Fold this sequence. Notes:
Layout: E1 10-16, E2 19-24, E3 31-36, H1 47-69, H2 74-91, H3 98-111, H4 120-138, H5 146-156, H6 194-209, H7 217-231, H8 238-252, H9 264-269, H10 271-284, H11 287-323, H12 331-338, E4 344-346, H13 347-354, H14 358-370, E5 375-378, E6 385-387, H15 389-395
Antiparallel strand pairs: 1-2, 2-3, 4-6, 5-6
Amino acid sequence: MERIITDPNVSVLGERASGLVVRVGRDASAYKAFVPHPLPPPLTIDLPLATAISEADRSIGELAGLGRTMANPDLLIAPFIRREAVLSSRIEGTQATITDIYSFEAGDATAGARRRPAPPDVQEVINYVDATHYGLDRISTLPVSVRLMKELHARLLRGVRGADKSPGEFRRSQNWIGAPNCLLNEASYVPPPVAQMEEALAELEQYIHAPAEVHPPLVRLALIHAQFEMVHPFIDGNGRIGRLLVTLLTVNWGLLPLPLLYLSAFFERERDGYYARLLGVSERSEWREWLLFFLRGVAQQSRDAIQRAKRLQDLQATWRDAVTVPRGSTLTVRLVDSLFSSPITTVSATQRLLGVTYPSAKATIDKLVGAGILELFDDRAYGRQWWAPSVLEIVGEPDESRAEFKPSGLRA
Length: 412
């Protein structure tokens, strides 16, 4: 499709294989912006790229097989979604840890109707978790689309930093990426002006819904993520929405039966490479380099998810054996299973989970403490918390030691 610039304030300066460089405005206020061409770009699948596609396909296929055979998929979904929410938000500057999230949720359950305000960084991660669950439910009735992007964005920025930046609405002014406090004409990247942004979004939606063509699904996924980042349609929150779309599309397209693949750990670990590869596409049409990078991330994170999933399954089996005794109560087993989705708990939360009295809930927690499963986490006067550090060690951030799982100080 030929792109025609009709805005009299926008003129074409040059063309690259990946898009147009346009000049916006006049005189000292003029700046250059990038308008990406519609997907797909011209691609040649050489041997290294074919090998990367094969490796990524094989790894995500193994992850899909594991997801289909799991007796209790919730064992993975809840902790994996929270881990992704923490890491995706961390790329954008939040400092909350996965332990902060679980600790707040445990305290919130204890507070009941007296809901506490979350610390700002914690609330941003909680919003990401909420947007993920919403998106996974929504794709059963609404395809991945610009409408869904806006709905996810509204949930992501509700009541947090960026709440004043048009949550749920595409931008009506120019945005840019650059060093803090840089001017528009000093930016490292300027996405399309509003009119061209709207056109690019419509074309991106068409590509998402287009019948499968010559490129494999994982290649299409990489192209879509990069294109969304280049269009940058929101004032704030673009990175998180772009990464969330990857998760939703793996489920929507049937690549995975469950939301088990999350790339933020890879993008956070390779942050400089992540931004450099995206910039390479817009500046030098380096689609091949971006695809190699993205596919390597898919392969690595698929293998990582498989390894964490198997460790969680083994841990669950070990703990069940440790607390199962002849004619014993099933309460301890139920509490053990719940620790994989909520590894920090309180007596009140356990009481509601098991439907028992407060003393019975405390006695059940004490049994797991005696078995070495739970440890005292927060010795506060009210709402004392216990945690299962072994679970958090498996689902926590990469290279994070047991000592670092203690709270980061983000308290309400």
